[in-house]
Amino acid sequence: MASQIQYADVEVGTELPAASFPVTRATLVQYAGASGDFNPIHWNEKFAKGVGLPDVIAHGMFTMAEAIRVVTDWVGDPGAVVEYGVRFTRPVVVPNDDRGGLIEVTAKVAAKLDDNRVRVDLTAMSAGQKVLGMSRAVVELA
């Protein structure tokens, strides 16, 4: 499946549709099973607090994966993402309550590159704090 977005139709500054992704303790346990990352900071509140964290935190790679969904949903093809990188700046805290945590993601086209590619800069927030820094993806468009 190729990109559904045309390079010629995209301008620098184009904002992608924002999205919010809820995160519960159950989500973290499922992700741990899929990824093999069973570090207790991601599921054991007593352990997480014992090492100085405010509570259980989401896996960094999980946070990164949720954020890129804004781009893949926009472009219509996950294979169109040819580069993606972030810096982890703050953890996504996931309380053991009905709400859990929330990752809020916005993104915009920051540059038009050669070969029908664009750079998309993402902002991922949780509890009012930026959780990913230097979050950028290069996407190949039609």
TrEMBL record:
Under SUPFAM superfamilies, the record lists: Thioesterase/thiol ester dehydrase-isomerase
Give the Gene3D superfamilies listed for this entry.
Answer: Hotdog Thioesterase
Q: Which InterPro entries match?
A: Fatty_acid_synthase, HotDog_dom_sf, MaoC-like_dom
Pfam families with a match to the protein in the record:
MaoC_dehydratas
Where would I find the MaoC-like domain in this sequence?
15-109
**Family the UniProt entry places it in:** Belongs to the enoyl-CoA hydratase/isomerase family.
UniProt name for this protein: Acyl dehydratase
Q: State the organism named in the record.
A: Streptomyces avidinii
